[in-house]
Amino acid sequence: MKALHKLFTVSLLFFLTGTAVSAQSVYLATGGNVNFFSETPLENIDASSQSMTAVLTSSTGEVMFTVPMRTFKFKKSLMEEHFNEKYVESEKYPKATFKGKINEGINWQRDTVAGVTASGTFTLHGVARDITEKGTLKVEDGKIYLSVNFLVALKDYNIEVPKVVTQSIAEVIKVSLHCTFVPYVKKT
Prior knowledge:
Structural class: mainly beta
Largest sheet: 8 strands, antiparallel, barrel
Order of helices and strands: HEEEEHEEEEE
Distance between the termini: 23 Å
Number of strands: 9
Number of domains: 1
Helix content: 10-25%
Radius of gyration: 17 Å
Shape: elongated
Low-confidence stretches: 1-23
Mean pLDDT: 86
CATH class: Mainly Beta
CATH superfamily: Lipid/polyisoprenoid-binding, YceI-like
């Protein structure tokens, strides 16, 4: 699994950067944290994944994230099973992705903290939608830290919740993402 993850990261890097971008402007984040939270009167559902991979090209502001759906862990194993089999159908739709661009100009060479927005395409459950989300970006000691909180309406991604459990699963899920980008260093 780790070899496949590494192959994907390298493939993602080349896909985003092409040949015109120098290695110094490419940053990788592996093992980023993605959480989601569903709050209802009957039950709260909280899950997280530590398997997000992301690439940021500072010279263009392009950014891409991917998270394997089966890497989300729940407090109850039955919730995890239902999440993968009945709701997001992880076998058919194995990952969620975002490909877009940071809209603000950032001085990547100077330590800073800035509110940013990113616009692009978020794909979940086989449905791709254009979105713009706000986040906080921090550049410090050559690393880039990114935190984003956003909402996902299940109906927007054709995720159906049976009427029997609508009181246990929120129609809109809160998602948070936190990652640390480090400069990509090409291995020779």
